Amino acid sequence: ISTVALSITFAKGEQNVDQNSMGIQTNLISPESFENNEALKLEAKGDQIAIHPRAVAVTDPIAVAFISHGGLESLLEETLLRNGTFQGNEILKDVHMNSRLISVFTSNQITNISTPVNLTFQHLQSKVVQEKVLCVHLNSGALSDHGCQHLFSNTTHTQCSCQYLSSFAVLMATTHKQGDLILTIISFLGLSISIICLFLCIVTFLFCRSSHNSSTFIHLQLSFCLFFADLLFIIGIDKTGNKILCSVITGILKYLFLACFVWMFLEAVNLYLIVRNLKVANYSGASKYMKISMYLIGYGFPVLIVAISAAINPGAFGTLYRCWLNPNFIWSFTGPICVIIVVNLVFFCLILKNLHEKLASLNSEISAVRNTRSLMFKAVAHVFILGVTWCFGLFQYGHLEDVMAYMFTIFNSVQGIFIFLVHCLLNQKVREAYWHWICCIKDTRSPVSEITMTSVPISKPLANEPCTNAEHKQ
């Protein structure tokens, strides 16, 4: 076909052929073809080649044929890169051809050229964001990416630069980095421990009455949201087989993570009110209106954001490989988070200013001041651990992509551990409650004979009974 096309071009000049499975455009190249120093462009079936004047230094006219072949994808895929092939630190899987095979022939049989030619391919199927693009050429009966460079891709077209005049195609492949397995192990182990810690937090906040106040109420809601978010992440992040189910999982995950940040915002507001009054709001005494308001904001605002996002771009909920937001639509999640973090920082500045004024006029050892400073420290730590985690997630690109991925995975996995450590283990009242529960469990397991054989006057309390002492402390 190429020989006939080149011969006709010498006889009749530029030719265009458009058939169902093939498109051909030919032209004559002479020194006059590049008088304006512009590239010569040939196009067929939506594919295009641009030949720079320096690529083919000609003194006599030569014929060039540009052919776009259709229907060869299934035949050629047998000779492509195999699944599991390594490229750098990546494993290529699900390799498939996503363009027509295009060929360039010249009458003087030039193959190696001094300046690369630019090729534009029209995709056979829309490109998925996560897919890696390979620009390849036919070499000794197989496709190779040596000498070809990927310049640009969108959903419909890919542009490549190659140093050969040959046959070319675009391959798409799923990539899995060698470090992905390590990240997966870290993530699932860390999240499993985090879920256990969050469960302990929920039990503690519900049943430890000595620590009940408005801050504990907010921490309970935060623990609920993070507990179910981590649990759903482990169970459903890779359930991509069912498109509808994956979209639902994505929406719920987005809702739960947003709810975590909204409750952090409410914690900052609550802290600000505490500092203004310099007392810890009592949980049981909190007004019904205040609780309802917190519920409406804490759980209603995330619903509003998710609903608006789903109405704007429902197709962005769920990707080919993860039940999470499409990277092009991630701003619908990160935008509200950034706003909440900034607002929280403003509140914390106001809190510090008010605390400084209070400390200037009051004794710094007053328990209310100490409690407020402690709550302030914990709230700032909250924003840091959750906010920094998602900052690492936002900057996973370029040379620091792997480092940011590891930092995001580690910080995301220890959020539950952090909450349990700060709000339970470092809280004196909670530690006393834990000791009280442990002592009572030990006493209930004591043999009946030991109790009946112990002679103690009824009117005298048991001085060494830890469970009773713990009760008196409460």
TrEMBL record:
Keyword entries, A-Z: Calcium, Cell membrane, Disulfide bond, EGF-like domain, Glycoprotein, Membrane, Repeat, Signal, Transmembrane, Transmembrane helix
GO MF annotation: an example: G protein-coupled receptor activity
Domain G-protein coupled receptors family 2 profile: 183-427
Compartments in which it is found: Cell membrane
Highest rank taxon of the organism: Eukaryota
GO cellular component, one term: plasma membrane
Gene3D superfamilies in alphabetical order: 2.60.220.50, Rhodopsin 7-helix transmembrane proteins
Name recorded for this polypeptide: G-protein coupled receptors family 2 profile 2 domain-containing protein
Record organism: Micrurus spixii (Amazon coral snake)
